Amino acid sequence: RARVAVLLSGTGSLCAALLAATERPGYPAEVVVVGSDRVADGLEHARRRGIPTFTCALADHADRSAWDRALADALARYEPDLVVSAGFMKLVGPAVLAAFGGRLVNTHPALLPAFPGAHAVRDALAAGVTVTGATVHLIDAGLDTGPVIAQREVPVRPGDDEATLHERIKDVERELLVETVAQLVTPDSTRKTSR
Ligand code: GAR
Fold first, then answer.
1. CB 151 near ligand 1, within 6 Å
2. What is the pLDDT of residues 101-140, one digit of tens each?
3. What is the dihedral of CA 172, 177, 180, 185, to 10 degrees?
4. Is 129 annotated as contributing to ligand binding?
5. Closest residue to atom 2 of ligand 1, CA basis
6. Which residue's CA lies nearest to atom 1 of ligand 1?
7. Is the CB of residue 87 below 6 angstroms from any atom belonging to ligand 1?
């Protein structure tokens, strides 16, 4: 099975969905480590399963480039085939990109290139769109700018606020992430853009 590392900053419901998927027979990936950039509840999903975790906080390093190198080293120790940013609220730097470029993916709660950044759900609501969604994309040096791998739409309902809309997006995002990770680590699979 392919070795997947997950990075998160918060509650980690996406990570939990991926961990649950890895427990199903035939799922082609296992999670070998879950890392965070801060004290994050989401690490608990891994700890409960006996999966290693680490925290690599910017504040514990001299500067951003030292932090980036430490993050690359912490990940490399687990020899991941794929690194998944699932609610990781920091931009990775050149050391992580050099080590894992091309096998580093992010999940984002909007239909990129629309609404990049940390407030995608709020920004979509403010723009008055009737459809938003979730995107899994390759990470490059920009903010949510890497090539899109898979997207799925989510309708905005009248009366939605940021919390209700984000929860509905995350329902879809969890499925999209589980399916896309499986496709990415399966060499012979026909790459389908799942909808
Ligand atoms: C997800 O919607 C993810 O796409 C988003 O944070 C949420 C994490 O949910 N990430 C970003 O907005 C990154 N810019 P979770 O903590 O429940 O897994």
1. no
2. 999 999 999 999 999 999 999 999 999 999 999 999 999 9
3. -160
4. no
5. 109
6. 87
7. yes
Tell whether residue 106 is among the known ligand binding residues.
Answer: yes
45 annotated active-site: no
Query: Phi and psi dihedrals of 47, rounded to 5?
Result: -55, -45
Structure confidence by residue, pLDDT tens digits, 138-195: 999 999 999 999 999 999 999 999 999 999 999 999 999 999 999 999 976 555 544 4
Across the beta sheet with 53-55, the strand order is: 53-55, 29-36, 2-8, 82-86, 104-108, 131-138, 148-155
What is the rounded average pLDDT of the residues 66-87?
A: 98
Which string of b and e fits 30-65 if b means at least 16 CB within 10 Å? ebbbbbbbeebebbebbeeeebebbebeeeeeeeee
Q: How far apart are CA 119 and CA 75, in angstroms?
A: 27
109 CB near ligand 1 (under 6 Å)? yes
pLDDT at 187: 79
Would you state the structure tokens that stand for residue 69, as one six-digit string? Answer: 């190198």
Residue located nearest, by CA, to atom 9 of ligand 1: 87
